[in-house]
Amino acid sequence: MGSLIQIGKEMIKPLAVLGGGILLGLTVYAALSRLSGRLARLRDDSSESIFIRRCRGPARLILPLLSVWFVFPFFEAPDPVLQFLRHILVLLLIFSLAWLMIRLLGVAEHLLIQRFTMDVADNLRARSVQTQIRIMKKIAIAIIGIIALSLLLMSFATVRQVGASILASAGIVGLIIGFAAQHSIATLLAGLQIAFTQPIRLDDVVIVENEWGRIEEITLTYVVVRIWDMRRLVLPITYFLEKPFQNWTRVSADLLGTVYLYADYNIPVQALRERLKEVLSESELWDGKVWGLQVTNATEQTQELRALMSAPDASTAWNLRCHVREKLIEYARVTFPEGLPRVRAEIHADRSDDGVYGRRKS
User: Domain for residue 75, yes or no?
Assistant: First the structure.
């Protein structure tokens, strides 16, 4: 019983030092949090609010850890206990600093994206910048994670010994690791290449695997394409470097839309052309740049008419094409019913044996 009391008395001072360091860190955190919150409200600065909100969690862990680190020299305990606590403290500091750096990357990403919003008509520059920002952020997070994990592992003496033995045979091990990780390295390089060369960007309109959609997400390993019917097509990022695909917004978002009509030779093409001009002039979907109607083909039964029109983006072009198609079909049906496609046939009369002509029976 006396020995337990003695141990308890010996632990009072170390625990008091440890608790005092933690309390000091939490007090500093509370004061800084309150002060920064007031400054953000006074200045009405959304960027400062975002910084405070994103970094609040890591700061709540880092400040007490730093306080404990400063008071650690006053901590009295046996050497094994000191080494164990110091190791735990180092691990927590590495983790918290990596956490803080990742949160700071998120703040930088948010502030940059705010300057390049995509809710404008011509958002090519914004989509290009946002694609680079998001890919580079993912690469930076991967690098921070690898460095933090390496530091955590290297803090263990056994891992350092294994690392020394690996370095002694670095040639063979490097070849084995390089061969095993060649696909992962190729994927990472593909992500870097797409970030800088940008064959695709966020919100690009593409046709891949015979599907029309928009680029919704670009990661270091895969790309998500949102199909027009809200399905998601997930493709490896190397797909866009190895296979052909259509990018309708590579240079600009405006497009030319086409509508094909098949009519009889009796229909007046000029009247349809004038009606097309009227329909486009009355529609808010047309950007006023390009329009036209031409006979592009002729068969034994019908002629092919192609109506051409321009629109500011792919979605508008689709709606404009549907609108023009409906209006032209309605105009042809009401105004020129004889101009609709028809099938012609000839009926020949045959003379019977009694000299009477009649219709050929089929």
Answer: yes
Residues 324, 279 contacting (CB under 8 angstroms): yes
Between 18-22, 28-32, 195-199, 226-230, the lowest mean confidence (pLDDT) is in: 18-22
Q: Do 314 and 271 reside in the same domain of the chain?
A: yes
Q: Examine the domain organization and report whether 282 and 239 are in the same domain.
A: no
Alpha-carbon radius of gyration of the chain: 36
**HEC profile for 212-266?**
EEEEEEECCCEEEEEECCCCEEEEECCHHHHCCCEECCCCCCCEEEEEEEEECCC
Q: Are 253 and 126 in contact (CB under 8 A)?
A: no
Q: What's the CA gap between 121 and 315, in Å, rounded?
A: 12
| Tokens describing residue 37 | 């919150």
Q: Could you read off the pLDDT of 140-185 as tens digits, one per residue?
A: 888 888 888 888 877 777 666 555 554 454 455 455 555 555 566 6
DSSP state of 210: T
Same domain, 231 and 274: no
Residue 352 domain-assigned (yes or no): no
Q: What is the pLDDT of residue 57?
A: 80
- 274 inside domain: yes
Work out the average pLDDT over 232-257: 87
Q: What pTM value is reported for the model?
A: 0.59
- In this structure, are 234 and 259 located in the same domain? no
Angle at 168 between CA 162 and CA 170, to 5 degrees: 95
Which residue range(s) make up the domain with 199? 137-248
Number of domains in the chain: 3
210: left (phi over 0), alpha (psi -120 to 50) or beta: left
Number of residues written out for the chain: 362
Q: DSSP state, 293?
A: E
Judge whether 305 lies within some domain. yes
Please tell me whether residues 232 and 282 are part of one structural domain: no
pLDDT at 223: 92
How many C-beta neighbours within 10 Å does residue 284 have?
7
Q: How confident is the model at residue 274 (pLDDT cuts 50, 70, 90)?
A: very high
